[in-house]
Amino acid sequence: MDHVHDVELSARPLGIGVWGLLMRSRILAIGIMALVLALVLAGCGQEPTKIRVTVGMWPEPYLREDVAMFEEWKRLFEADYPQYEIVGVPYTYSPDTFFPMAQSGQTPTVFQTWFTEPQKLIDNGFVRDITAQLQQLGWYDKMDPVMREMLSRDGKVYGVPRDGYGLGLLINLQIFEEVGLVDDWNGDGILDIHGPDGSPRYPTTFQELAETARYISETMRDQFEREVAGLIILSANNTGGWQFSNIAWNFGARLQVQDADGRWVANLNAPEAVEALEWIKELRWEAGALPASTSLTYSDWYSYIGTGRAAMAFVGSDAIALPVTNFGMDRDLLAFVPMPAGPRGHRYALFGGTPFMFAANATDEQVMGALRFLEYMGRSPETSPVALSSLRRGMKTAIDKGMPILPEIRPWVNEEYRAAAREIEAQYANVYMPNFQDFYDLLPVMRRPEEPHYTQEMYEILDAVIQQVLADPNANPAALLTSANNTFQTHYLSKLR
Amino acid sequence: MSFIRRNLAGWLVMLPGLVLLVFFVWLPLLSNVSLSFYQLQGYTKQSFVGLDNYAQVLRDPQFQRAFLNTGLYVFWSIVVGFPVPIALALLLSEVIHLRTFFRTSLYLPNVVPGLAAALLWKFLYDPDPGGMLNGLLGAVGLPPQPWLSSPTWVIPLIVVALTWKAAGATTLIYLATIQSIDATYYEAARMDGTNVWQRVRYITLPSLAPTVRMLLVLQIISVFQVLYEPLVMTGGGPNNASLSLLQLIYRYVFVRGDVASGAALGVIVAVALLVLTACYWWATKRAGHHG
Q1: Whole-number Cα distances in Å, A213 to A202, A216, A274, A313
Q2: Chain B: which residues have CB within 8 Å of chain A?
Q3: How far is A381 from chain B (nearest CA, A)?
Q4: Which residue from A354, A453, B111, B141 has the least number of CB within 10 angstroms?
Q5: What range(s) does the ABC transmembrane type-1 domain occupy (chain B) (predicted)?
């Protein structure tokens, strides 16, 4: 406070010296403090303290039907559990908003994220372990073990799967009909993906897939003077690597393997993986059956399919509705079939799911409340009347919005839940199931979880390789994959303990 | 503290701005520098690791690629983008009719939101035969071009889009400078019977030189930070051929959840920009002595 004794007689703008200003601000500060304290005290003891659970899956206000549905669930839940208060916070996960939010402890108690994120969020300490609560509710053993593994680290579970998805081949039946591959054989007004003899009219091997894609692109060019990609292969934002790993598996490759000491080593340049990349290269440069863009992402495929610029795409079963909801495509013009088999008979479907996760700073009671609220949303293994009526309500809301209703890949394996879900689905399904059934029939034997370590980083590295093959007719798949393999091994896999 | 007392009113006027500046610029900047020396979980410091994060970034093949690419962005922006606003300003200063119309038209792309402009150009550059530019080429019987799918051309093409968006504002600055040149020079030159080119060469351009130098540095600094055009138009592809340094920071932090590497790369970029700026000041100072 030396400056107070500084007796320099300078001008005093505003007629006050520093000391006066300080004094005033000090009084002001004390005043503000007192006011805040008074407000805090007034806030205490006014209402009985309820345990507040914030739900991030709440729909945005403009989705009126959905909001009404959630409000109803909230009402029922709070009537049964009066100690809880449910607060809806519409939060759409995005990595650039989530990090700062989590850092400042503002994450909703429970929120929905993408299937790519769980391990990253666990790494960064943004989500909490809910194993104890799951066991207390008896849900732990009812959870699909493959999905539980995806949401776990060191034996602790960090999330609840909303639903599962498997990769499959989505087909635009209108284009198939235009080039004469399918027809309405049984005369019910809907095109059939199976012939009159019941045999599939869709490609069941990668060789057939390449031939079909080439045939479609050529026929469209020659007869209709239209540019239609027979198949669309994604290549950016990690989707390229994600789809490629499934293609490579079906050619017989494993992209990460364990050596004799149990250490994980990169295997991106396995001969089968090189063969898979050659297959893509041929499809692009010799067959001319792929789009020319080298930066297609997951938001591109449904515009290609929905606007008739592509005949087929590798798609997650949870996203089939996108061409319908975004481009008004007729749902009866879609068929969804299993991933084709590779040259040596390997046939896998990459399998994943959409998770709900829980804020790192949520208390045990909050987690418990959030989990119980999932039951009221019809997103739990419970088959109580309220859970089943929520399942129905969800279906009905989706139908009112004109969405195609397909069997969901349920994340719970207890039979009473499965039976109830099946029954409800049969009641509400509004697609022509024969054009979808093969996928669901084969998924249990085809499904395979993603490669285990640094998966997203591996996808990023593979993206670049696929882009190069799509951009350069002289690209060398073996050399590209070998260099990618070295990068992945040196910078990522070698860091594993 | 006496200097505060002497100008109290001035400080009071500046206070809100200063508080905001410290809160939104200086604190984040300093905390970023400090984060870059730690191992992090989320944004929480775990342990001091010195220069480890920096070493890791410098070893990353993607960093080397992005550094080279950013240099290419700057190079192409000087070759393609830098002369455009100067030429436009010279043309405009000679235009007599419809000057306001031309000025407004040139400035319009600046009003377009950056993301929309990037998407618009992505649409123009669609590599499919039915794409906008390829459709035009097809109409005159030329084969479709790969545009942004060509590793060689992707950066210059993005620079064209950047130039389209930004040239108008720069043109106006040049134009204002040209119009503030003392008219007596031109009158004297006319007396000596010079033509337009000589006037431009001996009067306009030398008078523009300080502005040109300043805007050159500003352009390098801004192009060095190119982010959303490659993010939106190419995702950094094909095969990282258009990945920029700032996009790599985005990848580290938001795609991989690796905040420490992002912070370290942020500091590296800032240091590179400081060095560039210092070089420039040093060069202009020396040049200024016989200006």
Answers
A1: 11, 5, 21, 10
A2: 1-2, 4-6, 8-9, 12, 41-44, 59-61, 126-131, 144, 146, 148-151, 233-235, 237-240, 250-251, 253-257, 259
A3: 32
A4: B141
A5: 67-280
